[in-house]
Amino acid sequence: MSTPPLMSRDEVDRAIVGLVAAYDRISAAMFEMDAHPALVLLRGGGLRGRTAEVANEVLAAVEVLWSQFTALGAQLDRAKTVRAERSRPGDSELRLLTSVLRHPIVGLSASGLVLDSLAGGTPASWQTVPGLASDLETVADEVVRALGEVDAASARIATAYAQPLSALEKARAGAVDLGGDALKGSDVDGLAQKLSDAHAEALLDPIGASAPPPGLVSEIEALTARIASLAALRSAYPDRIQSLTTAVDEVAAAEAKTREAYAMAEAKIANTGLPPAPDATGGLRAHLAQLGQLQREGRWLRLVDELSIVERSVARAKERAAHLFEAADGLMQRRTELRGRLDAYRARAGRMGLVEHDELAAKHRAARDLLYTSPCDLPAATRAVVAYQRYLNQLTERGNP
Q: At the top level of its lineage, which domain of life is listed (predicted)?
């Protein structure tokens, strides 16, 4: 193999300037790499999954980088020292500089570590100083990029867990502010521990980890919603209790009106068949008083349920009072309707000249007596009015003799 020609002075100077620039770029990359927070994570150990694989690759590459970077600096210093000895280097200096700057003089192990001497073993390969600089730049950039990916994965995990962590702390603060039994059954501490365990597990493999478990997130959302609803209840309680009090007063008025209708119907109608008169007001007022006690004691969980019960009870009581009023008043309206029908049929009989018809007049008296006697037998009165109407129709159809 022929010996490579000696480098000229200009070639040496250009090569050294190029190596110095490369060394500066590599130094900056190495500093960025060494100060990278992701490298602290990878050096911490205990990692799993894909992150553990990346840690093994990156840490091995970092060891090789420092080994080669040290060798590059040493060879560069050697070249600069030789070049600085004479302004116009002779053949011996140029021969040495050519060896340093062009010949494969850096022995590397199979893993890429620099072997300083044969005592370190037989090199698996040899590299030139410029080739070493080129490899260093490439690998340093790759390591910095890998560290950036690890850092991005860690940031993604931090962001994914930040919202549920914040929600839990907000729920805890809200529950403490509410006092009473707001924390009872909510198990904030239990959920916080579950979330902390999941977060710690994710940090062991941020690259392969996903967002918090959906089931846990759902539990946290349910908890925060429950605490928020209790806080909203505390704020809205004065208005709700005032609204309920007004509604109970309305129930009382409706029941009083219904009892009046009952009294009238029972006085005027025989065998009304009405169910017992409504009387829910007393129980509703007692329940309202119980709500006030629960609110004063801060028994929010119980208050939520009891408020809903009272609101439904009030609505049902209103509906029942209105229904029973219609039933009682309907009896009186039925009697009034029958009276009106009888009068209308009587007027028709008058127009037909049948008022004095003996049998028709007897049917009219029978219907009238039933309708104007208290209490009125509505079924019998209904049959009597229908009988009067039918007989009148018969007389009209066959003609009055």
A: Bacteria
